[in-house]
Fold these 2 entries.
Entry 1:
Amino acid sequence: MKFTAEQIAGLINGKVEGDPQACIQTFAKIEEGVEGAISFLANPHYENYLYETKSTIVLVNDDFVPAKPVKATLIRVPNAYEAIATLLNFYESQMAGRKGIHPLACIAESAVVPESCYVGPFAYVGEGVVVGEDTQIYAHVVIEKNAKVGSGCLFYPGVSIYHDCQIGDRVILHSGCVIGADGFGFAPTADGYEKIPQIGNVVIEDDVEIGANTCVDRSTMGSTRVRRGVKLDNLVQVAHNCEVGSHTVMSAQVGVAGSTKIGQWCMFGGQVGIAGHAQIGDHTLSGAQAGIAGSIRKGHVTVQGSPAIDAKVFARASVVFKNLPEMYQEFNRMKEELEAIKQKMAEQ
């Protein structure tokens, strides 16, 4: 597909600065630009590439002022990063989805799979499963008994959806993702640990995307819930009976312990750990590797460190921590001087 600068500007409400008929057919990073590609400049650290890039069109912010002449045609938009995301989504939507049932797929007689869907080789759709229109189920996906899947979903190879789980519309599950495995529930006894049956399910609402090898465990009773618009990175663990509020995002290796309730529009950096039964308020932001040991009920805060504290306090504490060896030496020196003074006074 080919588009002119004028057509692209119309899609994203941009203003062309240069040749309105400049034509592109692919995307490229600004530092790897090629003729016929569109790139974007959102981070000022990449500005130097703008003057050298071979990309035909570059998206820039409205307030950007180039320091040198630019060969590429510019399209000015309020937010270049959001604009490129819009274009990428548009490009992806133009790609024709697969349809049809592969002869090596296994679909139970009682399952409902519309003709508009695609089911790849060695995929399994179990008894009582209901799948919505236009859903793509790739090879080796397993959807177990009585699960419900919405419309327009995309399940990459190797996804596992356990029995009775519910998946909303336009949900993307990446390879190795497991929805509805048993929660980690065991009761200690004199002879070891007795398994507590996990008889609940997982409910994933609309427009959620879950990364590769991420697990969302079924609840002991009731539902583990991932609300609308949540985005989970690869290798994330959401334990049983948790609730993740709408539009919350988690980077890789975040772990959420059981029965934790997380609010809306929260952000968690890589390797954040959240203790069980915590209440996390809306718009809580957490830096990478933070250990959240308890509730942050009021929300609208940024935390860092382990145990997690206010990020500004953590920054000041980090400065002190780095100086501890010198401070310890100074403390010992002052202690010796004080002892010498006390001894001298005692002798007088």
Entry 2:
Amino acid sequence: MTNNYLQKFGFVEPQIKETPNPNVGLFVVIPCFDEPDLISTLQSLNNCDRPKLDVEIITVINAGKNTDSSIKQRNSETLIRAKNWARENTKEGFTFLFLEQQNLPIKHAGVGLARKIGMDEAVHRIDQLQLGDAPIICFDADAICDKNHLVEIEKAFQANPTAKGASIYFEHPITGSEFDLFVYQFIIDYELHLRYYKNAFEFTGHPQACYTIGSSMAVMSSAYQSQGGMNKRKAGEDFYFMQKIIERFPVIEINTTRVIPSPRPSHRVPFGTGRAISEFQEGKNSDETYAFEPFNDLRLFIDRLPLIYKNQQLKNLDTLESIPVSIRDFLVDQNFEERIPDLLEYGKTWETFQKRFFNWFNAFRALKFVHFARDNYYPNKSLSSEITKLCTMKNMKSVSMNSNSELLAIFRKTDKERV
């Protein structure tokens, strides 16, 4: 049977010839580019407790047409070692499959396209099995996970049958001997920044607050296909992809297991964990984050939305004088008045009004607002000062005297205990 999504959006024809095991129901996809220790990642997944359904782990060894030949050679050597390892170590219920794509077009070669090739392959396998739907789990070639990782993902989707996506709890390593001490300090600050942003965004009342870490997300095949699959971005593909999913479908948080992403420095992508650590090494201040005020301003605006809807105040921006000036100026910058007729025409009920508003003022536009506010009103400040403000507003215990590592422990505990 022809798959319309693959026919329209597929990048390459299905690559894997082997017929999938009839009991397969979970698919893990790993993009791999010049990774020195892929085996540790594969071993971590192989060490996982066996779920009820069997698991296929699809690794996409990739490079672009213009990638240095020495990197392609290392990729080829990685592929040989990985296949040899899989033959000798794979346990029952697990299948390790490998795709080699080392001649990708220069324009698109990167992690987004590699994820897409692997996830599209999973879609094809799901069709072969006539499953209708199944989770596709994203992972990274330098990450590891807890033993219950696959079991908990399976249980979470079974317990939440309407969920079409998931954000999975993560913790970067913050101690050890693998990296220099300053790398662990930088990763403490970086992860604390991520957790501060997500919790501050959630504080605003925006319905799309969600971690978007490439190694820590999963999506059901039906939702993946309906949104045109993974994008081809060279970086940030995880944020933009999960943004599309969370706008349209229920997304759950799975906090009963843990992904451990690598904190190693990297210049291979324009942003993300590896790039951030490299920039900190080069002198960028790691103990800095967005001021809390933009989040508070956004909360004040979102809090007023029911009254704006009820009183039909949304005629033009002049009727919104009571909202913070940072929001007003941003709405002008984003041509919000052009959206008002659409909201009035199609947002007849509160539910449809909210949906249409947050589809426009989505998580991506909210991030643009935070940047706009930073550049025009509220410069970046220290992590500890802004976290203290957030915790005060959320009535959390006093954290003003804690070190960043202690603050991170508090936020990890808060996130992990979230229902």
